[in-house]
Amino acid sequence: MSNMSEIQTQIAAGLERAFAAHGFSVPNVDMLRDAAQVSLRTLYKYYPSRNDMVLAALEFRHERYLTRIFSGLPASPRDALYEVIRRIGHWMESEASHGCLFHSAVAAAPENEALRNLLQRHKQEFAQRLAASAKLPENEKELLLICEGLMQLWPLYRDDACESALHLAAALLAHTRVEQKTDGSIGSIETVC
Amino acid sequence: MSNMSEIQTQIAAGLERAFAAHGFSVPNVDMLRDAAQVSLRTLYKYYPSRNDMVLAALEFRHERYLTRIFSGLPASPRDALYEVIRRIGHWMESEASHGCLFHSAVAAAPENEALRNLLQRHKQEFAQRLAASAKLPENEKELLLICEGLMQLWPLYRDDACESALHLAAALLAHTRVEQKTDGSIGSIETVC
DNA sequence: CCTCAGGTAGAATGATTGCTCTACTTGCGT
DNA sequence: ACGCAAGTAGAGCAATCATTCTACCTGAGG
């Protein structure tokens, strides 16, 4: 990952850009070569098949995404959570207006197991870091659910999607606080209120 | 839509099955013909291009999905909401284990505007009917966000994704009740329950 | 009996694709 | 000065795909 030659990094960045801009079915290898600004020969030297190029683009994006979302968050768990949601909005605006690249990749090639594994690792690492930042290890899945919903809603509602996600996050925080106060016995939905 | 000949319906159902099982890039027209159990000629007669076949499959699924999710819901808004979430879980289990077909279609062909419009109409109609069933017209976007997040999480967490969605729905209900009680400002915890 | 609308099977076509290969260039260490 | 590692440009190849076309079948109605 970090032991990438300069040219390899340039290629991976170009691949990510191409796939992010046009999805995973449209760009043929010639287009990928143009995006990587490298000859076909060299492209195939580092990534010997188109599928490898897809994986390279996703690995590259994974790193970029995590640093962008989790670098220098506020110390307060609540503020960190809200800030993550806002950053996802900015990320969508500037880099992923068509939706999550990992889901797109899996959707374009559902039988590709390596891709599905990569998606799973990506989402799980994101969820863990989010739960850690928000100091809500019990609610990892709920937090991930909010962020996934946000990314799906964003193409439809733009900034309103962010507002909804923030709203839900606030509701979750308030709700878990209630649950803690009542010794957790109010765990099941039926018993709440 | 409802003025479809018998054979046209059979074709659309077969197309939906094929795309749901294998995504939108893998099945070639021969495969679609096999799924539709019809000759290539007839297939092209009703849907003169592969893209038309994709649209037909999605229209068909749209109808099937809405009836399956919203038919005969409980009268209580809260129970209706919970039931919708559970039904989405069952739907994923039995019909959409790879995720939302509409998102998959758009992911496979991001430059296809007709597809994007269809996705938008599908999600918006779903959101409206859900908000109406749950009697929460103010929170249409939040409800849609929960359901979208659930559909994304389902392939990763299965039934646990449902639990998380139910948990979030409960939090949202509790939270909006508090907001109403306290005129919009988040009130003291004691007013909940 | 004949017609014909509406079906079937599947070969032909033209374009595109992922990938390989040949031939040429360039920069650097000794 | 020379060799070589590592790049470029782009032609060629086998496979695949969407689409069209030819040829044949079938059953209901007059």
From TrEMBL, chains A, B:
Keyword Transcription among record annotations: yes
Statement: the UniProt record of this protein carries the keyword Repeat: no
InterPro entries reported for this sequence: Homeodomain-like_sf (IPR009057), HTH_TetR (IPR001647), Tet_transcr_reg_TetR-rel_C_sf (IPR036271)
HTH tetR-type domain boundaries: 16-57
This protein's UniProt keywords: DNA-binding, Transcription, Transcription regulation
GO molecular function: DNA binding
Gene3D superfamilies the UniProt entry points to: Tetracycline Repressor, domain 2
Name of the protein: AcrR family transcriptional regulator
Organism of this sequence: Roseibium marinum
Lineage summary: Bacteria, Pseudomonadati, Pseudomonadota, Alphaproteobacteria, Hyphomicrobiales
